[in-house]
Amino acid sequence: MRNTFAVAATAALVLAATGAPALAQDETISITGRVFLDHNGNGTFDAGDGVRVGGPGVRITDEDGRTTDLPVGPSGRYRVQKLLKSTYKVETLDVVNYTTTKSSYTTSETVTDGDFALVGQVAKGIAYVDANGDGTKQADEKPVTEGLRVTGNTKDGSPVDMTRTAGADGAYRFDLPLGDYTLTAPLLNNENLVLGKPAAATDIDWATGTRKLTGQTEQVDLRYITAAANITVRGSLVPAKDTYLVGEEITAKVQLVNTGNAPVMPTIGLGQFHAKVLRHSDNLEAESGTQFELEHRIVPGATEEIELTFTPTGTIFTAFELVVFDPMRALKDVDTTDNLLLISTKVVEKGAETTAPTTSTTTTAAPATTTTTQAVAQAGNKSGLASTGASPLGFLALGALLLAAGTSAFFLARRRRS
User: Fold this and answer.
1) Which H or E run contains 58?
2) Which end of the chain has fewer surrounding CB within 10 Å, N or C?
3) DSSP state for residue 316 in the 8-state scheme
4) 3-state secondary structure of 28
């Protein structure tokens, strides 16, 4: 166990020998300094730098090896006075979560500038609404007013959860200890704003709205645009038949095409569903037996494939109906006419089947740039997106649109009650 010598901000050391005469002024020294966050890395405390508050502080060791640890005050300063004139080693204890070019110094004289410049991790950038879509912040383009968030852990394992708001110029900055962090963009769907397609390497991922911070100083820009969200649904039934049997396994293969400008993650529902879902693709999460949610966003121009395998429970099953509802997490859907996939079917009891093959009717979908085929999971494991389609028969067109609106309203009301 180490010996400690008594020291305080304003207290004098007392000589060990009882009754010894008071020390002369030239027989004592004082040590003063600051522990600060060196934001510009120049080693000098100047405008824009921060102070280190609440850290492990500073340690002073005398010639006999006796030590004491000093806390750092609210201004980042430490101070000890009236030390017996001798040689002392002064060192910062902040060597795990920060780097520094000077971690200690030795003195036998009074010190008034015993500063320690700490360098941690910085995340900075601009967060704004790109009104003209050119990828560059203009003077009249407004900043994002919601807070950006950084979460993670410092190198010594301490948790970090910080929020910063961009200034009037859109600029923001996080000054962090060294560690493992993720920056998350605020969700602005209620303002009908979404992250735009990255125009530079510094732009945050528009699909996830996050960036893993890996550099000691990292630029991360958040560029929002006005959303014009839309999902188009198409699909077919496999096997494709005129007539199915009660209890027969049928798989709906559905394509969800993002034909808007916003990454979206809608919820889907199965309407008038006189059947039982047996399993669904891995990219879906089941919220109920007839309601599902996609696990991730679909970026504009991309197609997400989902699968639902089911079996009709009776001959009353006359159509496979899949509808998008609560489609864009509060974003405005610019075209609600393509949110329904309706495939008419005929189901009979065993012994009354017709076997002539046919092609299931699907909706017309906009072209997609990418397609992802998902593995199939057991029903109730995961959730997914909805698809859009049109009635296979001309005379059902108007009815399908009305049905889509009614079913969507039903599911949304149900979701809000839950």
Assistant:
1) strand 58-61
2) N
3) T
4) strand
Q: Give 389's DSSP letter.
A: B
Please, which residues have CB within 8 angstroms of residue 147's CB and are 6 or more apart in sequence? 163, 164, 165, 186
**Residue-wise pLDDT tens for the chain (418 aa)?**
444 444 433 333 332 333 334 445 568 999 999 999 998 889 999 988 999 988 899 999 999 999 999 999 999 999 999 999 999 999 999 999 999 999 999 999 999 999 999 999 999 999 999 999 898 999 999 999 999 999 999 999 999 999 999 999 999 999 999 999 999 999 998 899 999 999 999 999 999 999 999 988 999 999 999 999 899 999 999 999 999 999 999 999 999 999 999 998 888 999 889 999 999 999 999 999 999 999 998 999 999 999 999 999 999 999 999 988 655 567 878 888 898 999 999 999 987 655 445 444 444 444 444 444 454 454 444 333 333 333 333 333 334 444 444 555 544 445 544 4
The CATH 2.60.40.10 domain(s) of the chain lie at 25-118, 231-417
Domain with CATH 2.60.40.1120 in the chain: 121-226
- DSSP letters, 337-361, are GG-EEEEE--EE-TTS----B----
Which numeric CATH code is attached to 231-417? 2.60.40.10
pTM: 0.70
Q: What is the CA radius of gyration of the chain?
A: 33
Q: 222 phi and psi, to 5 degrees?
A: -120, 110
Amino acid occupying residue 105? Y
Q: Residue 166's closest CA among 194, 134, 209, 129?
A: 129
Counting Cβ atoms within 10 Å, is residue 316 exposed (0-12), middle (13-18) or buried (19+)? exposed
**Domain 121-226 is of which CATH architecture?**
Sandwich (2.60)
Is CATH 1.10.150.20 what the domain over 25-118 is classified as, yes or no? no
For 66, counting Cβ atoms within 10 Å of its Cβ (0-12 exposed, 13-18 middle, 19+ buried), the class is middle
Direct distance between the N- and C-terminal alpha carbons of the chain, in angstroms, rounded to an integer:
61
Structure tokens at 234: 């198409």
